[in-house]
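Researcher: If convenient, please comment on what follows.
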Amino acid sequence: MAANQYNGELDITLYDKVYPMKVNMNVIAKFQSETDQDYMRVSIRAMNALRKTTNLDPFDQAQLMTEAVSMHDAAWLFFLAAKELDKTVTFEEIQEAVLYEGPLMRAEDETLIESYPIKFANLVIFATLGVIDNAKKQ
């Protein structure tokens, strides 16, 4: 089932599996409880790091993004956001997918695959800004 962006949902692919995700206050509260991290501080740090990655080589980009987004924080946010829409998702499944996704962007079959910290930044950007287009909510 594909995520409906107009309902605050976003599809995130982790290790070739698509997870519809939703970040809401329930997810934010649980994220803060599980990680002892302030959600907004982590989100802004990720968004700011992503902004700074323009024109960096892949290793410098990975270093900057992983300094902003730990695997632990990414796994927890992805798990909690996915669990909002699919109760069968497990933390171990997401944690392993984040590990295999890795910190480096890579090319596969002429397609650029984003790293887990970039996917994290994209999720929090979407959670903060929502859908950016001229279409009306349905």
About this structure: The chain has a mean pLDDT of 89. The CA atoms of residues 105 and 134 lie 30 Å apart. The first helix runs from residue 25 to 35. Strands lie at 9-14, 17-22, 106-108, 111-113.
